[in-house]
Amino acid sequence: MEDLGSVQPSWAHGFDSNKIHHITNDVICYVCGSNIKFVNTTNKQEQIFPSPGNGIATFASSPEDRIFAIAESCLNPKIFICEYPSMKVVKVLEGGTHLEYKLMTFSTSEFYLATYSGIPEFAVTVWDWNSGQLLCKNEMKIDSLLTDISFNPLNWHQIFACGPDIINVLSLDRCNDIHLLNCREIPLPDNNGSDMHEDEHTSQSPVRSGNKIQLLPSTKARLVGENANDFKVPSQRHPLMQPTSHCWSNKGEVYVGCKNGQLFSLEPDSGRITILLGGQFEKLITGEVIDGMFNTISYNTQGIYCGGIDGTLRKIVIDKNGVKITKVHEESSEITTANFSPISFMDLIFGTKSGSIYVYNTKIENCRMVSNSHIGRFIGAGYSDGGNICVSCREDGTVQLWEAEYGTFVSSISVDCRATAFATCPSSSTVAVGCYTGHIYYIDINDPEKPRIVSRHRIHQQSVDCLIYTSLGLHLLSCSYQEKNIFVIDARPSAQFSCVGYIDCQGSIKNITMSQHSDDRTHFSVVVIPTLQKSEEENDETEDLSTSDRLLIFSLPNNGDSENKDERYQSLRKNFKDDFINKLTFDLTVPLDSAIVTEVDSNLHVVAISRENNKLLQFKFPDHQDDSTSIHNPSHEVEAHQLQDGCLTLSSHCQWIMSYAPDGSIIIRDKHNWSSSVSIKSHSYLTGGVSSALFSPDGQRILSTGSGDNSLISYSWSLTSKGRIAMNSALEYFRNLDMKLRSIAEKEDAVVATMKEWELPEYTAPAEQTDSTEDLLDNGAEMVERTGTSHSTIPPTPTPVPPEDATWLEEQLIIARKQENLQYNEVKRDLKKNIKDLRKTILSMMAENQTRPEVERLDQEEYNLDVEQQKQLQEMEETRVQQVREEIEFENLAQKYLKYIMQKEFWDDMDVKGRALKAFNAPTCITNYPMKERPRGEQALLDRVSRIRAAQIEELVSRKEIVEISTTQTSLEEEEEEEDSNLHPDHQLSLHGSLGPKYGGENELFYSQFDLHTREEKINQIVLVKDAIRRIKLSFNEAFTNAYQNKEQEIARVKEKNIRIREIMEDLDMDASDIKDPVLSIDEKPEKILTVLDEEVQVEHVLSMEQQKQLVEEQRQEQIRLEAAQSDNKRERGLNDMMGGVLEVKKEDILKQDIPLPEFVAEKPEKDWTDEERKMMKEHEKKQKDLLEEREKYRKNLENELKKIQQGVVEAMSSFDEQLLQLYNRKVKTEMVISQEESKILRLSSAVLMLDEINIQEEQINFLLEFGKTKKKQLNESEEEIRKLVDDYREVYDSAVAEDKILDRTFKRDFSDVPLPLIEPLYKLYKRRPRVQRQAVSEDRSHSYDPYPNAKKNPAMVGSGGSLTAVDDATQSTLNALIELDDPINIPEGLDTIVWQRLCSSRKTKVESELCVKNHASTLAEMTKYLQHLQDENEMMNRELEDIVKQQNKLGEDRMKNNLNLEIQFLLKQGQVEVETGDFIADYDNSILIHRPVVEDLNATIRGLGEHKVAAMTECKDFKKGIHQLEWERKKMMMQMDDLHNKARHIQMLKLAKDLQSYLNEENHQARHAKQMSVLEETLALQDKHLEKNVAHKQSTIRDLERTIRQKQHENMSLGKETEELHVSVSERNNIDEVNAAERAKHTADNRLRGIVQRRKLVDLAKAQAQEVAVLRAEVERLRMKTFPALVQIER
Fold first, then answer.
1. Separation between Cα atoms, residue 1576 and residue 1433, nearest integer Å
2. Does the pLDDT at position 765 exceed 70?
3. Which of 76, 225, 632, 951 is deepest in the core (most CB within 10 A)?
4. What would the pLDDT profile of 1267-1315 be if each residue is shown by its tens digit?
5. Are 316 and 303 in contact (CB under 8 A)?
């Protein structure tokens, strides 16, 4: 087949909502199956590019360079760099990963490609795609996968990568040809917007009380290594934001959108995060914030555009006023991807989850659809209208029509049901869609633009899994893989798509294929997995038979009708006869996936795909069925596919075999030559490969659908000369077949056109039958008895009614049943009559049986004639009973096992079993300490610690003896201390820290609390303290056992006394029911729980067979004993006859007997008594009186005895209660002691834990130190290497500068032959340089939507630290501009042409040298910057190492303090604690512990000094009292002296005024006073007059003001009336204006808008001109400065 040509994709459809990329401003591209589809958004032209490798794992594009990259999906995948629109592979990148690529992105300003690989590397790799070189790689975290990655458009050094739980900023550093990629992880903010990562290292470590040692949280988790620093305690674990998308701003920041509607910005350099949406302190927000709104985001100068899961496109504007959210477009499906056009940034391309692609213009705010592929898995496709129309069906039931040659979408229709199978009819313009409900829909596509559903039939109970038309389209085969029947349907619309029969395959169907080898019949091959039917008589040998597949081959006639239709069916159910369909069945040695008949001659040639090794097999079968059951082997085999479930199909002329499988490949072979084939990598195996593939009717095209990539691809042949010859045969066969089909199609299409569009019918349930046949039979006798009619009437058989939405087979079965009823009607009637007579006889027998005596009466079950059914029901009941019995037994067994476990755990294994002890008359209840036997390991540990501790004590004693021998005498102070310690045992208890020694916890092996320094000593002390706790509990348990025994004895005594009390009360005729014996409760005797008494069982006790036998035996023994007891007993009879039944007569029995009266009393009256009888009567009365007295005396004795016994019982109970109360007090103190000992254990355990954590932190610090040293060593090596490279390159730069200077100096020497007047102009021309256009400066960006105007590759970046590509472009543009300066037009007058050419050559050499120097300078600056970066990192690493060393030293100091600064537990009496207590416990942080004698001596000294001080203060007080008295007298005399001095001074300083002098000189003082009075009266009169004048003036003024007020009021009234009139006129004018406002607005709005736009343009123009003027002024200034002489050579 390879010599026939190749197969290339012609068109493809399918968009699975992945990313959409731009390749130009108007052309977008996305993955479609294993192809890249390019779509022009303007004219919607499409282009397909197949993957040059094995599938497509990921895809990226670079619109700046018009290239795209494809990463294949296979082992050791490659990356193909391709050009657009030539579609050439320019580079192949290899060696980046082993398994897969996840993400790719291009840099906008460099030839860089960044990739992210998955398992197993999880690394970010940077490539130079122009040279195909792998530059650097950085491995990421394995536990955090990345979902998005991109370069910074403004700075290629920065790469941002994010995932659902991580964000990283990668920095790409370059030093000439060396590249380095560093990664920095940025902590994500909390979900509520708060940042919890700032103070982690300061607040994460808990502070230990006492030692105050700061420890990392990883020490608690025992973590050492790289993951230790990432560990967080549960209290600090908060839900974090989950990034879903990101974009870059025009300031170099990253906007990150999160899953729950949060938005934050990130500064890549500093790593600072600013919460914009979703924070606690968010700004003013206008608009709605919902979860999932940031499914994808893009950015331009107008704002952030985000698409959400709700299908809404939103615009977010962030400014100083806050955040404004605006809905700009809404769709019904989730928006999955969005991207701006790369040049204009005006058009936003976004795709939805439904498969639609839209273009939203942000300028005019308009949205238009580019493509609508309707996402969904294709379940099949086919050709119609002679191959001109392609029809496809998706899983959701959507049928789409495409133009077959170019793939143009025509129309679509949906069946509103999940589709499972699809086929197109070659004989009519109809298609069949099979659904999971078992229905088949028929769709009319006569008018491709308006398809319609014309019919629906239900064929299967399960889903329709396969639909196949015959070659002429007369029959349609339908099957379900869950059923074993193949249904044959008349596919002609004129036959109403009726089913004509079915074929029983006797097994589950695996695959079915069709082939046409003759004009009269169409052959079908079916792969059947046979179903084994085992019978009870089968032996074990049948189970060992292999279950190979079975191949079923049959054929159907191509003529539409058969003359004898009934002869082709086996039964009324319309299952075909084997002879009619030429059914052949062959058993195979290998299981198959698919098979097809390729040739029919004397043998059947069959090609199949093996399920075991996926090879292509060839079989040859006889054309008739043999009687032998031989198994057939393949005759030939070749390699085919790599995965199972492959399928086969034939071309229309049956010469080409096509196979396809889930491995994604389609292989085409010639059926006569298998060695040559054509292979197509159509779909990826990762998405399920190929789901269906077929040839077009003319064989020129191939149509395939993907299983999981939602793609439909059409391929066409690119034929060679030999291929054209082979294709001519296919075309010739197609023409002949098409001529046959046209005659059929014209007729059938006319019928379809007349059919009405199908609508879902409203189902009406049929009338219910009154009774079924069984009901009529069961109730027949009763109806006869009620009505009294004759029994000749036979109930008719109910008419079968098909169920709702019945399948064709169910309907056919009902029809067959009706026909059988008509055929055997008489036989059924006779049977019913006989049954009715038999029923009547049985009913009469049952009625007679009821009249018989009970002994003669039969049971109701005896009249059941169906013995087999009765036996079956009994067996069912017995089985059910046995099942219930087994369930109960298993449940009881589980309960017994649970009881055994609990009893063993909490009772049998307990050395001391837990029980309680209660008081008799008090609510006191005490429990003991349940204790298990000490385990062997614990006992061994205790023995080992005891031996170690005993050896240590012996060693300490020996050391003391050696010291005493060497020392002559011991100090007196030590002896006093020893005596004090021996005399005060309480002091030892205080130092011991508990009262354990008093309660059985004493042990001489205890360490002193002041000697516990090492970890081993603390662990040994814990073991000894645990042993002490056990001994304390045992001591209490011993006392508890004694008290328990005492109670048992007391209960026994009380019971004995209660017996006597009951006897006395019976003798005294008192009620003894209130006397109750004390018993031990279930808490005091818990073993009662383990025994269940019969009276405790409240339900009916069911006995087993063994228990029943035992009970019968016990009853029999009891009966024998009773019979023996009732027999003649001589001893009892003698005792009763001789002694009244007792051996000893008691006194109380005698007193109970009455004295009998004499016999004469009853015989004679009193008057007839004799003297002797009277005497006997008196003696009788005396005896009676004595008896009464004895009885009274005995009663009093009994009462006294009763009181005494009752009092003794009460006293005994009270005595025991007092003992129990003492035991209760001891229990409380024991609990206190145990708590004290457990407090010791907790402190020691905490200290051991602290030591372990310190060791772990020390290991972590050592790890960090070694890691830092290793990194420091690597940095030093890198720094030395880079420094050497920089020095070497500086020499290259210096040599280039020197060569450039030499060129400048040799100018005059090279042009010495030029006349001197021309030297200066010539030198200026030599120095003249072409100008390079700076678009970034000259272009007006005021109305641009591009947020990254300087991010593209352009020559303007040369000399400004730009990229290498920009430098190369600038060099080339400069050399191109230099050609204009070399034009002969610029030759000065008088200069020779040869000299001009020499000048141009020298100038070009000079310019190239200058550009070379400039390039070297840029590279050197970059290398120097990288070297400085390494030096900074080295310095930072030095500081980190210094900090680690400080931490190590600090930890050593903390370890020493922790070992020496011990926590001691003391017992202090009340009064010895002088610390103020708080609400609960005292705070001893600022306290100190000192000895008591020191405090007492200090108190005595203070008391003595206080007495001396009081005496001295008293003496001082008396002395100061006299001093104060003298001082008071002195002050009194001084004050008197001051008064006298003041009086004398006043007299001396008195001045004589005129009034005083006149007063002294005047003799008549009365006249003087009278004169003064007269003057005052005159003054008063004058003032009154003046007052009256002022009052008159004020009154006149008031009158004038009142007059003015009245005038103003009149004026206001007139003005008010005018105002009302004006209001009326204004209202009228407003109404008129409102009516005309709308019409005026229409004319004026456009004028105002034009004015605003014109003003805005003028303002922008003015700004642009101002900028240009400023640039020109700067250029003039620069040119002016150039003319100044330069005295110093400046290096750039």
1. 106
2. no
3. 632
4. 889 888 988 988 898 889 888 888 888 888 888 888 888 877 777 777 7
5. yes
What's the rounded Cα separation, in Å, for the pair 13 and 1190? 127
Share of the chain above pLDDT 90, in %: 23
Q: What share of the chain is helix, strand, coil (3-state, %, to 5)?
A: 45, 20, 35
Give me the amino acid identity at 1376: N
The DSSP result for 510-546, as a single string, is EEEEEEE-SSSEEEEEEEEEEPP---TT--TTGGGS-
Q: Using alpha carbons, select from 663, 503, 657 the residue that is nearest to residue 585.
A: 503
Would you say residue 689 has pLDDT above 70? yes
Tell me the C-alpha distance between 636 and 505, whole Å: 27
* Rounded-to-10 torsion of CA 433, 436, 440, 442: -30
CA-based nearest residue to 611, from 594, 596, 597, 598: 594
Could you tell me if 554 and 583 are in contact, meaning their C-beta atoms sit under 8 angstroms apart?
A: yes
Give per-residue burial for 98-124: e unless 16+ CB within 10 Å, then b. Answer: eebbbbbbbbbbbbbbbbbbbeebbbb
DSSP string, 930-998: -EEPPPHHHHHHHHHHHHHHHHHHHHHHHHHHHHHHHSS---HHHHHHHHHHHH-HHHHHHHHTSSGGG
Angle formed by the axes of helices 1171-1305 and 1393-1460, nearest 10°: 150
Concatenating the DSSP letter of every residue in 740-804 gives: HHHHHHHHHHHHHHHSPPP------PPPPPS--HHHHHHTHHHHHHHH---TT--PPPPPP-PPT
Measured CA to CA, the distance from residue 1362 to residue 1332 in angstroms comes to: 16
Peptide bond into 662 cis (omega under 30): no
Helix-helix angle 825-851:780-787, to 10 degrees: 70
- Going by C-alpha positions, the residue among 1569, 1669, 1592, 1268 that lies closest to residue 1444 is 1268
Tell me how far CA of residue 1501 lies from CA of 1022, 1489, 1494, 1505, in angstroms.
44, 20, 11, 6
Tens of pLDDT, residue by residue over 307-339, are 999 999 999 998 877 888 999 999 888 999 999
Tokens found for residue 333: 């499906």
pLDDT digits (tens, 9 = 90+) for 705-732: 998 888 999 999 888 888 888 888 888 8
Which H helix or E strand runs over 340? strand 335-340
673-681 β-sheet, strand order: 647-650, 656-660, 665-670, 673-681
**Residue 1442 tokens, joined:** 């210094």
Q: What's residue 1045's pLDDT?
A: 92
In this predicted structure, the answer to whether residue 391 has a pLDDT above a threshold of 90 is yes
**Stretch (H or E) spanning 1175:** helix 1171-1305
How many residues are there in the chain? Answer: 1692
Neighbours of 1466 (CB within 10 A): 14
Q: Look-up: residue for tokens 């016994």?
A: 1205
pLDDT score at 771: 40
What is the distance between the alpha carbons of residues 254 and 714, in angstroms, rounded to a whole number? Answer: 42
Run of H or E residues at 1492: helix 1492-1548
- pLDDT at residue number 981: 45
- Whether the pLDDT of residue 1676 is over 90: the answer is no
Interatomic CA distance for residues 1597 and 131, integer angstroms: 108
**Contact of 433 with 473, CB cutoff 8 Å:** no
State the average pLDDT over residues 143-164. Answer: 90
pLDDT value at 972 more than 60: no
Phi, psi for 1088 (deg, rounded to 5): -65, -25
DSSP 3-state assignment of 220? Answer: coil
Comparing CA positions, the residue from 806, 819, 812 lying closest to residue 501 is 812
Are 1223 and 999 within 8 A, CB to CB? no
- The rounded distance, in Å, linking the Cα atoms of 741 and 594 is 28
pLDDT at 782: 42
pLDDT tens string 180-210 = 888 988 988 888 776 544 444 444 444 444 4
